[in-house]
Amino acid sequence: MLDSKKTNILLAMAGAAVLMASTPVLAQAPAEPTPAAAPAPSGAAPAATPEAAPADPASVGESVGGGHGGGITPISMFMEATVVVKVVMIALLLASIFSWTLLLIKLFEFGALNKKTDQFLESFRGARSISDMRAVATSDEFDGNPLADMAAAATEEIELSRQAGLSVTGDHRDSALLRAQQAVAAVQSGLAKRLSGGQQFLASVGSTGPFIGLFGTVYGIMNSFIGIAESNTTNLAVVAPGIAEALLATGIGLFAAIPAVIFYNYFNTRISNYGTRSDGFNAELINSISRQLDRGA
């Protein structure tokens, strides 16, 4: 009986030792993979996965803004602008077109003017009498040339004095020469006005173009801020297009104003140069007439 008790005790101790040895192994063993979920019954909503979670609104705004920004063009900005901004843009574009048209017209005008003036001076300097001078100045070839008009006015005054019975080569020489000078001055006084056609328009576009464009920009940005307040968002995708449309008005204003200022200064220089040339011809004309009168021609 004692032996059976000892045997039972030994068996219990052996079982406890086996149990203690097997416990860490079970703790370290990997968990069995969970069985795949059974397919949801028909009509049931699918379970939400982590990937389907809603994205951050800021990242959505950035993606939308980037996609919209890639499609923004000057034409699309113009089409989306408000009526006031559109009117400003159209007015500035028309002013720019007129400025470039005026540039081409005046370039051809001054080119033809200088060429015709060179031909007139060559013919005028070959004249041997006041009558020859008058014939050259009043010919159809030089009709409308400013220097030819000056010569025609001076020689006509001498001829009128002769027809009046005045001795232009004798006692009335100085008075006839003075009247010729005044006739030339009268023609020359209108020369600047004659050559400066269109300059006022260029000056107006150059001085007011940026401010007109700025008005369109201010109006457009004001509307953009109103839209921000109404939509209660500062998302770049909402703000950027309106501001871009507004800034386009300033860009068009500068595009119209800068060439206009350049053209205005350029043609002012051309007009001044031709005025200096007419002053020189004035002196040459009076000297030629005075010389012919001294010769009795």
Provide a compact summary of the structure.
This protein has 297 residues and is an all-alpha fold.
Description:
There is one protein chain. With 297 residues, the protein is mostly helical. It has one domain. Helix content is 78%, strand content 0%. The chain contains 10 helices and no strands. The chain is rod-shaped, with a radius of gyration of 48 Å. The N terminus is likely disordered.
Name a few traits of the molecule.
10 helices; 78% helix; rod-shaped; disordered N terminus
Please specify the SSE layout and strand pairing.
Elements: H1 2-28, H2 57-70, H3 74-80, H4 83-124, H5 130-137, H6 146-163, H7 173-189, H8 191-195, H9 199-231, H10 236-295
Helix pairs in contact: 2-10, 3-10, 4-9, 4-10, 5-6, 6-7, 6-10, 7-10, 9-10
